[in-house]
């Protein structure tokens, strides 16, 4: 069975994701579509609008065959570590290809960029550190460093978030010499020609914004979401008394930070260069999350980086827990969130060849990543009323999603 | 100026407290009445129903001349440490007498008990440890040990909470050889003869229960409270969107415990003998505070001891922060919460003789106790909406309460 890997967040699953799924299947000629998905917290440092289980149900209903969890330790990270965790997960399960969306829809600029950066690695690193020392944020310093080695002239624009991610996926495959073929399809923002989809393609960000503002499903969002996505969004909202956004966690964050010492705050992943004092000082002044972020933002720290740091504070993730993943070249396990009939056949076939176990739930393993995963679930649900929290918490210990089995 | 010290919590101030105040003034012949009062968290391990500032205002309106804060590190402790902090605070400010309420209203049994226990110290301690090893709670083991050395036959019933406290005050004065005369007045539970008070004397516990249950002032409570007590209770309720009780802190506690490791939980003061596992296991099951306490309670741990431990978890108070107070024989500072005109004259007179500074607010000092105090304020206010929290938090940095000055 030929398989194709996708790296996704589905927050929430919309027609653009469906297009990516269908085009990737066609382009790769795969029989089995395998998605590795961030759990309850996402790469940009945000709680997912609905939990991973409901997002898994949607994914399976739309044609994904296997949903694997990207461990928290890799999910809430910069593009390099996010890519490392995602690609290594897909590699463990034995995918033949990984297909991502990009502006060009052509893999060759990514391969050329990889060769070019490798050939100028020393200059790139020197330049990067110079810009960082000047107080630029990482993405800005990195963009300037790419320019300095002349990458912008003949390859690819690595200041675009999607290109950065695509480049990181490609780099991980090549760095680790994996037997996976990187592929890319052209992203589409508006109308396109697939007959089965005639709906609006909107970004997940604009969809979240639209529904989180009024705390209700909007006409605009409805036009961009498949029926099962709308259904599961409404189902989760009812179960959890609302969708998740940062504002709901503000009282917990304020309580936590004001009762910790600066030294303790400094122990969390992402708190560097005296940020602990700024975090403390500003959260005492703020009365809601967005006010806090406005007070907290500086040139050096991107919004995304600050949100990731706050996620690690919320989930109590220490520097020492993250350090081991930098050296890791193989994941300790692969966690299954859901599968279709096709997915089940594929996994049965792959299981024997795999070097690491497939976990059906978090109790099966004793790895430290599992402990962190459980903690992230508790942190994610901590803003809900106690009854709802207890009910949704139980789901974490249950089996993977298996529709119609 | 002659002064008399009182050790109080005023949670809330009721007619029984007024009786104690007036009787102590009469019995001691003091010109200046000085109360050392627990801050926002109390000896039995509970958040005060209203904050220390409003309780200070009531105390001053009822005839107390000086209100000093009992540092958090001593306030939420067993009777020995609570007494140590309270008596040493009153000693610093130079009180001539300390007058507490007891069932007998006679100081001699307390003095005799002290002599008897001193004479049989080794047997008492041996006996105490035996009962503790058998799994008895501290108060029970201690009662049996007192029986074992024959104290019950000729002195005082040290199984009564008020006698235990009175005994601890007496013991602290004598152990430290302080020039303070211990005194006691007879407690009264119902009608008594003072003409100025013809109201119901109810316990603070029953008053709290009565108003916290319905979240409204009740006729029953009103009959037991002076006018200014009712007024300040209502004023605070309006400012803080409600009175404080443990239930309001449950979501924060659940979030905190479920995201900490057992090792981290064990670092909090009061978490001993594997209690961390029981705390974690039970809070995952519970959906409110009282349900949690029911699941948590065992023979070995009294309700009070568990509540104290939970207070230290909420305020993030570590074992290593408490250890130094065991050896302490002098407080590092005395913190002033409020004073009348008389109180001001008294303090002006005493200030020169004092060996430690009087702090008008928490920013004046850099002592570790002050840091803990500030943290306990943040923890206390953490259950309020952000706007209210911010406003009440500011009060902590302000000057002491000084009516009509």
From TrEMBL, chains A, B:
Function: Catalyzes the formation of N(4)-acetylcytidine (ac(4)C) at the wobble position of elongator tRNA(Met), using acetate and ATP as substrates. First activates an acetate ion to form acetyladenylate (Ac-AMP) and then transfers the acetyl group to tRNA to form ac(4)C34.
UniProt key word Protein biosynthesis: no
Keyword field: ATP-binding, Cytoplasm, Ligase, Nucleotide-binding, RNA-binding, tRNA processing, tRNA-binding
The protein's Enzyme Commission number: 6.3.4.-
Main localization (coarse): cytoplasm
Reactions the enzyme catalyzes: cytidine(34) in elongator tRNA(Met) + acetate + ATP = N(4)-acetylcytidine(34) in elongator tRNA(Met) + AMP + diphosphate
Protein name: tRNA(Met) cytidine acetate ligase
Keyword DNA-binding (UniProt): no
Compartmental location: Cytoplasm
Organism: Pontibacillus chungwhensis
Family: Belongs to the TmcAL family.
Residues noted as binding ATP in the record, renumbered to the chain: 7-20, 101, 162, 187
Gene3D superfamilies: HUPs
Superkingdom of the organism of origin: Bacteria
Entry's transmembrane regions: none
InterPro entries noted in UniProt: Rossmann-like_a/b/a_fold, tRNA(Met)_cyd_acetate_ligase
